[in-house]
Design goal:
heterodimer; A: 114 residues; mainly beta; four-stranded antiparallel beta sheet; 11 strands; 51% strand; globular; B: 112 residues
Chain lengths: 114, 112
């Protein structure tokens, strides 16, 4: 039971570099999302997707891009890394429904930007 | 003002104590209320889930929601060292609207 898998677990980048954080889920969930977690700020939504080909912005989307070509994968791209993007990034997925569906989280990618 | 306010702690209690964790919120549209537990260097995991007002009990854990006061609580009875973690409250409007708003988390340490 893999659930939500995030890679890499750790990454150090230099300012201006680009990279892609990978997220994959094997639960056939329609809804996937990316959060960043910073001390004193909690989890803040970056981007989300309600299905393949459909994405939308969350609370803090600037500097990040996403795409959803398959149900399973939802990569997050940092276009030009900045020190303010140093954070722990979590990917989550859930099924869709009339009630609230619990989100399943990966174990995070710890990203440092120098 | 944040939509969801949560005391960050840290909260330190002796083993066996009753723990009370709380959140307040401002958006009256929230219908679903959750508590997530997050161990160090791990992702959050759903602990309790409540719809609208009322109480829900699961083993040593009880979740309470008071929508009139916009106040939710998580009680942990007979706390154990394995309960040491950060507890995040979370809320959503539901109805197919999946966005969840999280509190900042309260760090709990249970001392043996």
């Amino acid at each position: 039971n893999a659930g939500v898998t995030q890679t890499p677990k750790f990454q150090v980048l230099k300012t201006g570099q680009s990279m892609t954080l990978q997220c994959a889920q094997d639960m056939n969930h329609e809804y996937m999302s990316w959060y960043r977690q910073d001390p004193g700020m909690g989890l803040r939504l970056i981007h989300y997707s309600v299905g393949a080909g459909i994405t939308d912005q969350g609370e803090v989307p600037n500097g990040y891009n996403v795409s959803r070509s398959t149900t399973e994968d939802f990569p997050l791209r940092l276009l030009s890394a900045a020190p303010s993007q140093t954070s722990v990034y979590f990917c989550a997925s859930s099924s869709m429904g009339t009630g609230n569906q619990p989100q399943h989280f990966g174990d995070g990618t710890r990203l440092s930007i120098l | 003002q944040k939509e969801v306010e949560q005391d960050p702690g840290p909260l330190s209690v002796p083993e066996g104590a009753i723990v009370s964790l709380n959140c307040t919120y401002s958006n009256s549209a929230f219908q679903y209320f959750m508590w997530y537990r997050q161990y160090s260097r791990k992702g959050p995991e759903l602990l309790m889930y409540t719809y609208s007002s009322g109480n829900k009990e699961d083993g040593r854990f009880t979740a309470q929601v008071d929508k009139s006061s916009k106040y939710i609580s998580l009680f942990i009875r007979d706390s154990q060292p394995s309960d040491s973690a950060t507890y995040l409250c979370a809320m959503s409007r539901g109805g197919g609207y999946q966005k969840v708003t999280f509190g900042t988390g309260t760090k709990l340490q249970v001392i043996p």
